[in-house]
């Protein structure tokens, strides 16, 4: 199914301008940096990219702001983030529109992404009163041993197109209450959402009396990101993107002994056990695999199904895939919007060619859509492919809606297949057998940073820590105690005894 005609680029341009105007974001138009929309695949308008001096100026300003911000009481820092959350609520609809224009998300998912920003602001405001250290039992009489947490410095945030605003907010809301300042380099594909978020945060800073330079935005290409990676003033580089990008960023930051927090690719799988509630599983699988047109790092890419139910589940999924409405993400009936670029579509087609050469059987989808209406856009039917084994292409992350279906006989075999990929972000099991669920969640089960039961791999709440292992990079963002990555701890020994007692029973003098 294809939903109705696409909006024109002129209509989308007008819509984007109206949203930016409502938000109060000024757009410095220029020639060198085009904003575009995947809905038609065409440019909207040109922007000005940051040059070498802009980067230098932003880093100097963010560092200077840090010196004030780090001593501002954390609950007062929370005031800034509370105000940001209020402004996000007020501009929810405009922000969601911009996410749809730039990232091609359907309305419900675009609103969900804005909600994720609001949620993390609420979380961070609470956190601003809970940056707890601990008091530790000292082995010496009259001594207090304590752990304290202090702000870290400037955090460089490098974000990806697919969550253009939520991932920024996870980093920024938490970093700000932790007393850090932020320099943000968004994806080159999503500068407008970045301008909007930056403007709202600047407004919140004005209104709450926070230093103007607690947040700086740098639109630009790879060279801008490289400056953040290499500059010793950037205490932490938090980068979201491909494993290829992470392999470059991690060692470069490490070479200057800086800290990095990497959120890289996933190749997420779900195991479907014979006892699974299949109605629920089908819903969970289709949202996780075809939602966001397969462009979440948490997208479900592999389905490991018990052989007793593999045929019937594949049949049910084939039917649902055949009816997924692909098209204009602003149309309320659409479930699958465009891929971000035609390059992404080429990579999807290439993966499908490879998997077929490996003996995979295309059960549904995979055809390009709307090529005549929008030749520069990249609409596709999500693809469902039955495979016998995890060949190289199955073990890679193709950032597009392809779901590979594999069979298994024993849970041990399923878990082995599940973990036999380089990435380790998200995972799930559909089962009504508690023993199986617990094995999957145990140390001998899923090796991912996220492991779920009876829910798909995508759509995590902000309250938990988000991130994964192996090629996913090891970082944790968002909730739980991920805030500790944005601070430095100090261990304090205070002697109030009036005598000098050395630890470990050492005597001296
Ligand atoms: C991403 O794709 O980079 O769990 C982040 C999810 C979302 C975040 C995804 N809350 O799918």
TrEMBL record:
The keyword Oxidoreductase applies. It holds the Pfam family Aldedh. Residues 30-489 form the Aldehyde dehydrogenase domain. InterPro entries: Ald_DH/histidinol_DH, Ald_DH_C, Ald_DH_CS_GLU, Ald_DH_N, Aldehyde_DH_dom, ALDH7A1-like. One of its GO terms (molecular function) is aldehyde dehydrogenase (NAD+) activity. It comes from the Bacteria. Its EC number is 1.2.1.3. PROSITE patterns: ALDEHYDE_DEHYDR_GLU (PS00687). The active site is at 263. Homotetramer. This is aldehyde dehydrogenase (NAD(+)). It comes from Streptomyces fuscichromogenes.
């Amino acid at each position: 199914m294809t939903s109705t005609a696409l909006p024109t680029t002129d209509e989308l341009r007008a819509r984007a301008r109206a949203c930016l105007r409502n938000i109060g974001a000024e757009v410095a138009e220029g020639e060198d940096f085009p904003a575009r929309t995947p809905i038609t695949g065409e440019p909207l308008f040109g922007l000005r990219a940051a040059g070498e001096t802009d980067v230098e100026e932003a880093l100097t300003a963010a560092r200077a702001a840090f010196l004030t911000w780090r001593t501002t009481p954390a609950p007062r820092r929370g005031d800034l983030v509370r105000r940001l959350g209020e402004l996000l609520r007020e501009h929810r609809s405009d922000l969601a529109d911009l996410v749809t224009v730039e990232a091609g998300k359907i309305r419900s998912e675009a609103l969900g992404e804005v909600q994720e920003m609001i949620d993390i602001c609420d979380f961070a405001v609470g956190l601003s009163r809970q940056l707890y250290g601990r008091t530790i039992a000292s082995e010496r009489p009259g001594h207090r041993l304590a752990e304290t947490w202090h702000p870290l410095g400037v955090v460089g945030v490098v974000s990806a197109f697919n969550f253009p605003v939520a991932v920024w907010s996870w980093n920024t809301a938490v970093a700000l209450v932790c007393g850090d300042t932020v320099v943000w380099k968004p994806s080159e594909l999503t500068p407008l959402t970045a301008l909007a978020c930056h403007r709202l945060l600047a407004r919140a800073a004005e209104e709450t009396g926070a230093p103007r330079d607690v947040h700086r935005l740098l639109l630009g290409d790879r060279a801008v990101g490289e400056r953040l990676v290499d500059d010793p003033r950037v205490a932490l580089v938090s980068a979201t993107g491909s494993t290829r990008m992470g392999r470059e960023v991690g060692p470069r930051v490490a070479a200057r002994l800086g800290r990095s927090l990497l959120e890289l690719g996933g190749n997420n799988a779900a195991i479907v056990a014979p006892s699974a509630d299949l109605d629920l599983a089908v819903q969970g699988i289709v949202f996780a695999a075809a939602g966001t047109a397969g462009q979440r790092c948490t997208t479900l890419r592999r389905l490991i199904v018990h052989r007793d139910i593999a045929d019937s589940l594949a049949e049910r999924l084939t039917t649902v895939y055949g009816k997924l409405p692909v098209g204009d993400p602003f149309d309320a009936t659409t479930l699958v919007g465009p891929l971000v670029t035609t390059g992404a579509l080429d990579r999807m087609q290439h993966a499908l060619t490879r998997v077929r050469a490996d003996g995979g059987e295309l059960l549904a989808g995979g055809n390009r859509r709307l090529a005549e209406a929008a030749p520069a856009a990249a609409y596709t039917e999500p693809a469902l492919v039955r495979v016998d084994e995890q060949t190289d292409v199955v073990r890679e992350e193709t950032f597009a809606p392809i779901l590979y279906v594999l069979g298994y006989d024993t849970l041990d075999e399923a878990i082995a297949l599940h973990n036999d990929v380089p990435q380790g972000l998200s995972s799930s099991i559909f089962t009504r057998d508690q023993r199986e669920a617990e094995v999957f969640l145990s140390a001998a089960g899923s090796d991912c940073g996220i492991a779920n039961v009876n829910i798909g791999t995508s759509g995590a709440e902000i309250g938990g820590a988000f991130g994964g292992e192996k090629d996913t990079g090891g970082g944790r963002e968002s909730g739980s105690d991920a805030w500790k990555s944005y601070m430095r701890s100090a261990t304090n020994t205070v002697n109030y005894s009036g005598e000098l007692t050395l630890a470990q029973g050492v005597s001296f003098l």
